[in-house]
């Protein structure tokens, strides 16, 4: 269980909020901290520096939320991201000006691409020096303009309560995403009468939640007429908390369903109608079904290129229904026949009032079940080498599919998506749109802080782990019991796979020789370390790691040349799969 520096009961939390909301002349820094408490923030990830010294001075002795000092600003924002994805709350991080702020950029872009609600707080130089190239000055609002949902430069301390309240509202409504608040040092020092803001009125910002009923009626009629309907569910199902409504919709209509990489966990993997994940490394059945469907119902996915493959040949026979809270996504990549703008949960609640079984699709359902039985994910196991797929299967079996799993980016990410079966939403944390290496381990720290009583497993490659390994320190210091898995194939695996299959074995700059002894590295930080290179060692090491009460690192030495299959090469339609071992 995670060691918490403060334990707040519901009663005491209300008492704290009552105390924090009393009008009082205080500094901008104190206003910030009080406002965070009033927004129900219980954990902040950050790294101090000159421009945020007043904020951190106000935080001295402050015990109304946890602050986790990471070892790099990128670790802070990835941890805040993992916290948000695993909890459904807004993640919060703090960094200083200049390099502190710019070190957050990759994490902001990661959250923006995947619609993750964050409030990112940066310091800046004093207002009179802005624009003079002062020491550690950076125009972070300008730098991040394309990758934030909104950003603020606070010019007047009296605006701070309103801005903070608006930032949380914007981040966690509509299509969710990161909001940045840049606070000059003089604003954080200035004093004013603090009056909490509890209402929001933002001209021009009014996301559509409830759908047009006529469009929902069109969806129901399309289902009734369809012989080969298919649902494509994405991360919007998870983010809107619509997993129960989706299950009800599928149960009532009896329509087969495939879930995108970010949609994993939004629908129970054990359900017979689930086809697995579609796209570049998706299942044979999901990809073939998309190409054969006469009705494709997109629920909260954005038709990413890793799902669609060659757009001109995607779902060529299907009438397209697209349900999304962001109208800009509808029709952006794939022409849409029935657009439905609204919150996924609300749309499905209305659709479920009318939904009936797709009676014309019996032959289609039978065909899909035959395909699932004939073409499951498969690999050639080995008695002499440790296969990464086998490792993921072992992790699934030993955690009963109930762990929160975070990943870095690469082959291990795809193997985790393929071979770990998720039954609950918010149990899968991965960088989808941006594909950010270095994300996996820090995001697990955030996920564990949000869920102190759940098992959190971070699956990484030996490449991505070296981009964030310094965060082992905070696991040791705070006894954050993340179980860190490193699938070590001594190479940049996904790059090697592409170079083998697409670039005719011209391997260029992929060798990770010189990587550290990960067991010794873990132990240097005070974290328990294990290594395994065969199945028996793997079983023993993993059992010990799971039973260990604190953080643990397990290095699984796996086959260097193993590939992820199926694979759809760029420029191909998704039914043109390289099956590899399954061929």
TrEMBL record:
Its EC number is 2.2.1.6. InterPro entries: Acetolactate_synth_lsu, AHAS_TPP, DHS-like_NAD/FAD-binding_dom, THDP-binding, Thiamin_PyroP_enz_cen_dom, Thiamin_PyroP_enz_TPP-bd_dom, TPP-bd_CS, TPP_enz. CDD domains: TPP_AHAS (cd02015), TPP_PYR_POX_like (cd07035). Keywords: Amino-acid biosynthesis, Branched-chain amino acid biosynthesis, Magnesium, Metal-binding, Thiamine pyrophosphate, Transferase. Residues 216-350 form the Thiamine pyrophosphate enzyme central domain. Pathway: Amino-acid biosynthesis; L-isoleucine biosynthesis; L-isoleucine from 2-oxobutanoate: step 1/4; Amino-acid biosynthesis; L-valine biosynthesis; L-valine from pyruvate: step 1/4. It comes from the Bacteria. It catalyses: 2 pyruvate + H(+) = (2S)-2-acetolactate + CO2. Residues 408-556 form the Thiamine pyrophosphate enzyme TPP-binding domain. PROSITE patterns: TPP_ENZYMES. Binds 1 thiamine pyrophosphate per subunit. Binds 1 Mg(2+) ion per subunit. Its cofactor is thiamine diphosphate; Mg(2+). The keyword Oxidoreductase does not apply. Residues 27-141 form the Thiamine pyrophosphate enzyme N-terminal TPP-binding domain. Pfam families: TPP_enzyme_C, TPP_enzyme_M, TPP_enzyme_N. Belongs to the TPP enzyme family. This is Acetolactate synthase. It comes from Paenibacillus glycanilyticus. The lineage of its organism: Bacteria, Bacillati, Bacillota, Bacilli, Bacillales.
């Amino acid at each position: 269980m995670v060691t918490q520096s403060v334990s707040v009961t519901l009663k005491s939390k209300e008492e704290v909020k009552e105390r924090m909301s009393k009008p009082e002349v205080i500094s901008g820094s104190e206003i910030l901290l009080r406002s965070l408490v009033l927004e129900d923030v219980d954990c902040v990830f950050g790294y101090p520096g000159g421009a945020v010294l007043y904020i951190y001075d106000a935080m001295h002795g402050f015990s109304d939320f946890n602050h986790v000092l990471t070892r790099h600003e990128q670790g802070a924002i990835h941890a805040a991201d993992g916290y948000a994805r695993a909890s459904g709350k807004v993640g919060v991080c703090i960094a200083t000006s200049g390099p502190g702020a710019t070190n957050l950029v990759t994490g902001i872009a990661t959250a923006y691409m995947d619609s993750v609600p964050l409030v990112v707080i940066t310091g800046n130089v004093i207002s009179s020096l802005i624009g003079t190239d002062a020491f550690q000055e950076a125009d972070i609002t300008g730098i991040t303009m394309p990758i934030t949902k909104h950003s603020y430069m606070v010019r007047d301390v009296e605006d701070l309560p309103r801005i903070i309240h608006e930032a949380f509202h914007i981040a966690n409504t509509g299509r969710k995403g990161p909001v940045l608040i840049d606070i000059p040092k003089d604003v954080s020092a200035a004093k004013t009468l603090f009056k909490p803001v509890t209402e929001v009125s933002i001209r021009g910002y009014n996301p559509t939640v409830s759908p047009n009923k006529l469009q929902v009626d069109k969806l129901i009629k399309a289902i009734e007429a369809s012989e080969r309907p298919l649902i494509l569910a994405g991360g919007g199902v998870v983010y809107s908390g619509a997993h129960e409504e989706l299950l009800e919709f599928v149960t009532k209509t009896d329509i087969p369903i495939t879930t995108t990489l970010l949609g994993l966990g939004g629908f129970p993997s054990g359900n017979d109608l689930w086809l697995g994940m579609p796209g570049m490394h998706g299942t044979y059945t999901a990809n073939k079904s998309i190409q054969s469907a006469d009705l494709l119902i997109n629920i909260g996915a954005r038709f990413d290129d890793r799902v669609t493959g060659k757009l001109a040949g995607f779902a060529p026979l299907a009438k397209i229904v697209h349900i999304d809270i962001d109208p800009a996504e509808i029709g952006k990549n794939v022409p849409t026949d029935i657009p439905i703008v609204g919150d996924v949960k609300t749309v499905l609640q209305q659709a479920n009032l009318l939904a009936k079984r797709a009676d014309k699709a019996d032959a289609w359902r039978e065909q899909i079940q035959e395909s699932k039985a004939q073409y499951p994910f498969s690999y050639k196991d080995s008695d002499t080498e440790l296969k990464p797929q086998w490792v993921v299967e072992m992790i699934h079996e030993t955690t009963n599919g109930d762990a929160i799993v975070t990943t870095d980016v690469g082959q291990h990410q795809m193997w985790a998506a393929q071979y770990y079966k998720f039954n609950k939403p918010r149990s899968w944390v991965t960088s989808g749109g941006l594909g950010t290496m270095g994300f996996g381990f820090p995001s697990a720290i955030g996920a564990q802080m949000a869920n102190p009583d759940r098992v959190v497993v971070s699956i990484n490659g030996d490449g991505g782990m070296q981009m964030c390994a310094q965060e082992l320190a905070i696991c040791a210091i705070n006894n954050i019991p993340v179980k860190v898995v490193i699938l070590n194939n001594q190479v940049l695996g996904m790059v090697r796979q592409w170079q083998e299959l697409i670039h005719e074995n011209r391997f260029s700059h992929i060798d990770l020789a010189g990587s550290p002894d990960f067991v010794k590295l873990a132990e240097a930080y005070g974290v328990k370390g294990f290594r395994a290179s065969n199945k028996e060692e793997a079983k023993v090491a993993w059992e010990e790691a799971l039973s260990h009460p604190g953080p643990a690192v397990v290095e699984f030495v796996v086959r260097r040349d193993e590939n992820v299959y199926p694979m759809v090469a760029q420029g191909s339609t998704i039914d043109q799969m390289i099956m590899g071992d399954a061929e």
